[in-house]
UniProtKB/TrEMBL annotation:
Pfam family, one: Pirin_C
Name of the protein in question: Pirin N-terminal domain-containing protein
Residue segments, region Disordered: 1-68, 327-351
CDD domains according to UniProt: cupin_pirin_C (cd02247)
All residue ranges annotated as the Pirin N-terminal domain in the record: 77-156
Length: 366
């Protein structure tokens, strides 16, 4: 399926080319009726038995003041290159607890790709790169911050009931200063069979490439399962994977998760065995190789070292002050047209950010 999209970017030198993506087999249901061909058994990696693989990690969210569920950063910092995962359940109270409608003021980013994905309802994405645009369920808004961009989000659904997730992935070192750009994709590749529906959002999943620009190997896909479904989902065995449940409940490789919870599966598996609970399930699957970058990430600002982050923070603080005085802040982070005061950066005085020790490159031995 060809994907239609609107891509907005300033006339600047092109960023480093996207990395090539790998392809894999299609997902297979393990609960197919007798009239269908028998599904292939789950195939473990050739280097280890299933018993020798590291078990999945279950992560419960921390709650933000507005009720949003923060999964990353938390008890762990990354899943592959993904460094930020926050789920918004919409206004009201439910199984996830009391929450407010998604409404984030303009704030800065460097060195990241910011993904806005809407499960249900609609969200307005306000950026310094392009005019404000409404993102509806099943559409992707992808902001590449690179050397500097700012954005904000607001629920524009009836009664503020949009269900959405905010994600960030770290750009590789040679793209940290890429030109800011925004992509809005209204059609994405979909695989559907029986009670299984897979939408490829970013990167590659099940042999299908999403149209959005990426700068390193990664994956993001929405998976919808009928109640009681069992599937063996083919995945890249050199990827870590995170499975964020939006609705319903799942069990993956023996570890269960409910709405707003995350299961992290270490690298080494060629398939993920998933089972939906008694109700239909909807989840987002993230993936990528374990991070081996020496990059500092703080408050949405990524740079090679402390000084780079501190300089970005100072630029935002100066720009925010000029805006408060009524001057046009045509500076590093641009301007967001939302009629509200931009966010204030946390204090960095007396803090020295350290470059984390690389966790990779981890590889599966053939």
């Amino acid at each position: 399926m060809r994907a239609s999209s609107d891509v907005v970017a300033p006339a600047a030198a092109p960023a480093p080319p996207p990395v090539p993506r790998r392809r894999s087999a299609l997902p297979r249901r393990t609960d197919a009726p007798p009239s269908r061909p028998a599904a292939r058994a789950v195939r473990p990696p050739v280097t280890a038995s299933v018993a020798e693989l590291s078990p999945p990690e279950h992560i419960a969210p921390s709650r933000e003041p507005d009720g949003a569920a923060r999964l990353l950063p938390g008890t762990r910092r990354y899943v592959g290159p993904w460094c930020f995962v926050e789920h918004h359940a919409g206004a009201g109270a439910g199984a996830e607890g009391a929450s407010a409608a998604l409404d984030t003021p303009a704030h800065p980013h460097t060195g990241l790709q910011l993904l806005t994905w809407v499960f249900a309802g609609a969200v307005e994405h306000r950026t310094s790169v392009a005019p404000n645009a409404v993102v509806r369920a099943g559409e992707l808004s992808l902001l590449t911050a690179g050397r500097g961009a700012s954005h904000g989000l607001a629920d524009v659904s009836d009664a503020g009931t949009a269900r959405a997730v905010r994600l960030a992935a770290l750009l590789p070192p040679d793209a940290l200063d890429a030109s800011p750009s925004l992509e809005h994709h209204t059609e994405l590749p979909v695989l559907a069979e029986g009670g299984v529906r897979l939408t490829v959002v970013v990167g590659t999943a099940c042999g299908i490439d999403a149209p959005a620009t990426t700068y390193r190997p990664l994956a993001c896909a929405q998976l919808e399962l009928a109640a009681g479904s069992h599937i063996a989902l083919p995945v890249d065995r050199e990827f870590e994977h995170g499975l964020l449940v939006d609705e319903g409940a799942i069990t993956v490789e023996g570890t269960s998760a409910a709405a707003t919870e995350l299961v992290v599966v270490p690298l080494g598996r060629s398939y993920l065995r998933l089972t939906a609970g008694d109700a239909p399930a909807r989840l987002l699957i993230l993936g990528g190789p374990p991070l081996d970058d020496e990059t500092v990430v703080w408050w949405g600002l990524a740079a090679p070292d402390h000084d780079g982050v501190a300089a970005a923070r100072a630029d935002w603080a100066a720009q925010r002050t000029r805006r408060a005085r009524g001057a046009d802040p045509a500076a590093r982070f641009g301007r967001v047209d939302d009629g509200a005061a931009p966010a204030t950066a946390p204090d960095l005085a007396g803090v020295r950010l350290r470059v984390p020790a690389p966790r990779g490159p981890a590889r599966v031995t053939p």
